[in-house]
Amino acid sequence: MKILCQKAHLLESIQIVQKAVSTKSTIPMIGGIYLSAKEGVLELQSNDYETAIKCSLPVQILTSGTTVLAAKYFSEIVRKLPGDTIEISSSSENTMITLKSGKACYNLVCLPHADFPVVQILESNNTYEIPEKTFKNIIRQTTFACAHEDTRPVFTGVLCEIENTKINMIATNTHRLSFRTAEIINNTNCPLKVIIPSKILNELNKILSSEMETNVSISCHQNKMAFNFRGIYMETQLIEGQFPNYNQVIPKNFKTEIIIETNALSEAVERASLLTRDGDYNVIKMDVDNEKITVTSNNPEVGVGYEEAGAITTGEPITIAFNARYILDVLKIIDTPEILFSFTSPLTPATIKSKEQNEYMYVITPVRTN
């Protein structure tokens, strides 16, 4: 193998495939990055048996070849090499790889590429397409509501439902629920209902662009799902299990509703939360009445906080308490100036939506204070 490539492009590709490099396994091969150079393209791969990633970039190929390098050393050396162009070449025995840039030269021991679990493109009759920037926004507005503990794996993933040209994605940790819907291109007319690990979605979100006009191709077969876009291919194992019927927890009728500026509520809750106790669910209390909402916090060890913000209110007055962090989390991902906050009673779930858009809904369970 002997190739010439742009350092910036190579480093970007390495950073993408590193997301599926195992850092804990005792198997050296899955701690490596697979490189294959042929026909003007360098293909990089990683595979930890749960997630697999393949990334391609154009390079100048003088001699074709294949190798596997330890990801830790390969990535750090490339990152710190001088110059804009890197030469990658292998020894005649294919046991060493030489990296040259400027006056720097490093030799790395190759791993046996024949043992690498090469990524096979998922063959599926279930294929769907969604605009890249839309998919990025869906991920951003759902994964934050997932559970972090893996005692109940289904809650660490996002439910993905596809039927006709509609995609619904739902995440919950049982105390809150985030729901997002969007239009897609369905190339198969096959309905789909699977649970995608939030870990891979969060990594995917880092790569997806909100500026690109390209589509993401989504394929599913048995217990695997793949995402293909801009020369990047990511594949993941799906989570097995029964996701709860989320429709049963979404309130249908409300007794109190307010329209309030997103930033005004966010700032009020954030300041009030400074006096909450972490061990007490970060509790803040909200009182809605007379065209305003008051937010209070009470920490006997520190003091009392009080905030007031104007709002358009309809229905009955209500006093209700929430985990402040759960409120702040959703206000960070709503992009519109105003929200619609709807309540039924102090002990039943409330909802938060954008005032202008209907694609997104957040359901939050109140905290009992007595």
What do these coordinates show?
- The structure is a single chain.
- By secondary structure, the protein is of the alpha+beta class.
- The protein has 3 domains: 2-115, DNA Polymerase III, subunit A, domain 2 (DNA Polymerase III, Chain A, domain 2); 126-247, DNA Polymerase III, subunit A, domain 2 (DNA Polymerase III, Chain A, domain 2); 250-364, DNA Polymerase III, Chain A, domain 2 (Roll), CATH 3.10.150.
- The chain has helices spanning 7-17, 71-80, 132-140, 198-207, 262-272, 324-333, and strands at residues 2-6, 32-38, 41-47, 51-58, 60-63, 65-70, 85-90, 96-101, 104-109, 126-131, 157-163, 166-172, 176-183, 185-186, 192-197, 215-221, 224-229, 232-237, 256-261, 283-289, 292-299, 303-310, 312-315, 318-323, 338-343, 350-354, 360-364.
- Helix 1 runs antiparallel to helix 2, helix 3 (132-140) crosses helix 4 and helix 5 packs antiparallel against helix 6.
- The radius of gyration is 25 Å and the shape is elongated.
- The termini are far apart.
- The mean pLDDT is 94.
